Each structure stands twice: as structure tokens, then as C-alpha cells.
Amino acid sequence: MATTTKVNVSKFADKQVSRLPIEMKVAFYVWVNAVENNGIHLVRSTRGYRDEALQGKRKGQRSVRLNRAYRMIYEQFDDGKCHIIGVLEVNRHEY
């Protein structure tokens, strides 16, 4: 039996997503659907998302680029049968 992946969006992140431009909302939900349908490991290897581990106070969290300006922060938990992805926030990335 294959491992399934479930994406849980925090209330904070959900509120941030509701305020995004429509193109960013679409990009966010495309990523969520891709993770739930294909698994995090396959989506993580997709170059366009630039999925990367974070450092410092965000160690253990990962970042995905929705576009050049916006990124999403998430954490991954495993319970043996399921990968649970918790989306923590979606924000405008400072360069």
C-alpha cells in the first residue's frame, strides 16, 4: 500500500491565502493538489517550486516558491502510513 499525503493549512496560513492575488491563490492550491495526488517527494523534486530546507530559527521547516515574490512555509510529519504537511504561512518574500 502506498503512503498517502495530507495537507493541513493552519488558520493563520488560510487567512493569508485569502488575501493573496488570485494568481497566487491558484498557485497555492495547485501545489496542495499536486502534493495530495502525487506525494511530497515527487512535488519536492519539481524545479519550479524551489523547495528548500530552512535554517536558523526555522530549522525543520521548508520553503516553496509560489512565484518570485511569494513563498509558502511548511513542515512535514510522518505517522508511518501518511505524510502530513502542515502549511504554516504564505508571505511576500523579502530579498
Word description of this protein:
This protein has helices spanning 11-18, 22-38, 40-44, and strands spanning 4-9, 52-53, 62-65, 70-78, 82-92. It is globular, with a radius of gyration of 13 Å. It has one domain (4-92): RelE-like (YaeB-like fold), CATH 3.30.2310.20. With 95 residues, it is α+β, with helices and mostly antiparallel strands. The protein has a five-stranded mixed beta sheet. It contains three helices and five strands, in the order E-H-H-H-E-E-E-E. 32% of the residues lie in helices and 34% in strands.
In a nutshell, what does this entry contain?
This protein is of the alpha+beta class and 95 residues long. It has helices at 11-18, 22-38, 40-44; strands at residues 4-9, 52-53, 62-65, 70-78, 82-92.
Topology of this protein?
Elements: E1 4-9, H1 11-18, H2 22-38, H3 40-44, E2 52-53, E3 62-65, E4 70-78, E5 82-92
Parallel strand pairs: 1-5
Antiparallel strand pairs: 2-3, 3-4, 4-5
